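fyi for ur records
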Amino acid sequence: MRLCFFILMVLCTLQVQAEPWRFVTEDFPPFTYPLEGQRVALDGPAAQGAGPFVEIIELACQRLKQACSVEVLPWRRALSLAEEGKVEGIFTVVDNPQRQYYFHISRMLVTAHYSLFTGQDSALVYRQATDLKGYHIGVYGPSGTAMILEELLKKAEDATMEMETDNPRVLRKLAAGRYGARGAVLMNRDVALYLQQQLQLENVREAGTVQPIHYGIGLSRARVSRDAFEAFDRALGELQRRGEVAAILTRYGLQPAQAQK
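which gave:
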């Protein structure tokens, strides 16, 4: 009887381990984006993910012999699914209390920078938060970038924030002067430069760097055990130590985060 029970438990464990992990992300080039030929619509089906973070996740899942899939959705839908525990993972995420509440946060994989951008005619040279006095600043959100801007504006007199539904919209509005004469946007520098080139926006310039930012992967506390998360994070660490994460990120022109011991 005990032997039958033991066999049943082993079979159940194997079945649980065989269930695929579902990761969700957003269209956030050059970090992650839909597979070529696919598009992301607000109410449409998910697109298959591509880009450096997808490649890293695939390698980690291979090491764990864990089936994984990555879907690209509008960020608000992706975040809602992840916070409600309907998927196993989400990326890219920053390591802050808001994200830690819902997710196990992996080691950081890439280093980027939040930068301020203005129109070409603007005189703004950003050095500190008080330089933003009286500015109207666009940002994509809800997002980690919007959280940073909210904190920044606490130190900037009479500065205001306007939240948009996606990064291309933010940059297009800036280029068209729709944030006003004292308008600016806060954006991930890599994303802004990528979109500026793709959208062929000439009336945009970088006004200064606000701070560095590091991105990792979040695994749902509701769906993924601590042990399973730690195994996943160890797999990421091994990929970092072997130089595979750096090789992938460098190929996309991105800066690898410092590997954790």
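The radius of gyration is 20 Å. thats all i got for now
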